[in-house]
Amino acid sequence: MNGPSPRKRASIKDVAARAGVSWKTVSNVVNDRPVVKPATRDKVLAAIADLGYVPNEAAREIRGNATRTVALVIPHLLNPYFARLAETFHNIAARAGHSVSIELTGEHADIERRYARGLAKRSFGALIMAPLLPETVRELAEHSPVPTVVLGEAVADHGSIHHVSIDNTASAVDVVRHVIDRGVSRPLFLGAQEGVASTGTERLTGFRAACRFAGIPPADQLLIHTTEWTRYEGYAQVRDLIGEAANAKSSTSTSGTKALPFDAVVAGNDLLALGACEALRDAGYTIGTDVLVCGWDDIPESAHCTPPLTSVAPDLECLVSAALFAALGDDSFARGAQTAEVTSLGSASTFLVPHTLVTRTSTLGH
Fold it and tell me: Rounded to a whole number, what is the distance in angstroms from the first to the last CA of the chain?
C-alpha cells in the first residue's frame, strides 16, 4: 500500500497568500527589517507558523550577496581608461564591503540591451553602465529593474536613472582656451559626433562655443567625424589630412614641411590624440611647436609618451564614489563624492564631477 504523499514545502508566496500581503513584505519580516507595521508582522508570523515555512538559507545568502554586488557594464578593457575605471570601482567598493562585477558588452548592441532590460544571467543589486548607444539610456529608464547609473553619456528624459560624468562642455572650453592662449588660430576637433546626445556632441559643443568666443570663424574650425575613438582611427584621420595637404597647393613652412590646415588637434580622447601624434611625427612635424595636441581621460600612457600629452583628467575617486552612492545609497561613498555638483530631477540625480586640465609638452612646446 502506498504511504502518504510527502507534504509540499511551503514557499514565500504561499506565506504571502495566507497572510494577504506581498512576498516582499514576507521577505522583510523574515529578514527582520523595521519597515513592517506590527499588525502586519503578526499576520505574517502567524502564516509562517501555520504553514511551517522554513526560509531557504542558501537562496537568502545568494540574494543577500547579490544586493551587495554592483554590475559595472562597460564596452571593453582595451581602452586603458576603462581598465583604470574598473579597478577604481573595485577598490572603492571593496572598502565599503561591496563587490563589483565587471561585465563587458564587447560593443555589441544586443548585449548592452540585455543588461538594460534586466535580462542578465546573474542577479545584481545595482547597475552602473557606460553605454555606447543613445537608445540604451531609454531602455534603462523603461526597463531596468534595479537602481541604475549611467556614466559619461548625456542623458535626457532619464526618469529614475542617475547620471555621473565630468562637464564635457566646460572641459572642452578649458582645452580650447588653453591652445588659443598658446597662439592657435586653426584648431581641429578630432572625433566629432553630431545628431545624438553623447560625450562627443557635448565636447564638440564646448569646442565650438570657445572658438566662437575667441573670434575664430567656423571656416577656421576643422571638424573630423570618426566612427571610433581609437589610436588607429586618430592616426588614419590625421595621416589622411597630412596627405591631402601635401597634394594641395600650399605654402611651405620654415621647417620645410607643407603647411597644414590646422595648428592644433583637440581629440575626443587620449587614444585619438596619441594616434594623431604618431601621424604627425611620421610626417616630420614637431608636436608642441608645429602642432599642439591634447585629449581627454589622462590615461597612464599620456604622461609617458613622446612628447607627454596634455589631457583632461577626471577626478576618478569622485566619479566612482558618486556612482556607487547613487546606485547603492550607502553613505560610505558620500565623502568621496562630496566635490561633485549635484542636481536632482524627480527621483534621479546628476553628478558633475570635477576635472583638471593637465598641461604637458604636447601643448607647451620644448
Answer: 97
Burial 34-44, CB ≥16 within 10 A → b, else e: eebeeebbebb
Q: Please tell me the pTM assigned to this model.
A: 0.78
Name the one residue in this structure whose C-alpha cell is 572625433: 191
Beta strand 310-314 with 348-353 is unpaired
Rounded Cα distance between 111 and 198, Å, is 19
d(CA 163, CA 150): 5
- H or E element: which one contains 53? none
Query: In a 10 Å sphere around its CB, with 0-12 CB exposed, 13-18 middle and 19+ buried, how is residue 353 labelled?
Result: buried
Give the Cβ contact number of residue 52 at 10 Å.
9
Q: How do 348-353 and 341-345 pair as beta strands?
A: antiparallel
Task: Produce one character per residue of 126-140: b if its CB has 16 or more CB atoms within 10 Å, e if not.
Answer: bbbbbbbbbebbbbb
Could you give the CA distance from residue 213 to residue 72 in angstroms, rounded to a whole number? 39
pLDDT in tens, 5-50: 444 567 777 888 999 988 778 878 877 677 788 899 889 888 888 8
Q: Measuring CA to CA, which residue among 69, 140, 98, 84 is closest to residue 331?
A: 98
Measure the CA–CA gap between 120 and 162, rounded to whole angstroms.
Answer: 20
Instruction: Please enumerate in sequence order all residues whose Cβ is within 8 A of that of 7, keeping only pairs 6 or more positions apart, or say none.
Output: none
H helix intervals, 192-332: 199-213, 231-247, 270-282, 316-328
Q: What angle do CA 250, 254, 257 make, to 5 degrees?
A: 50
Encode pLDDT of 194-220 as tens digits: 766 788 889 999 999 999 999 999 888
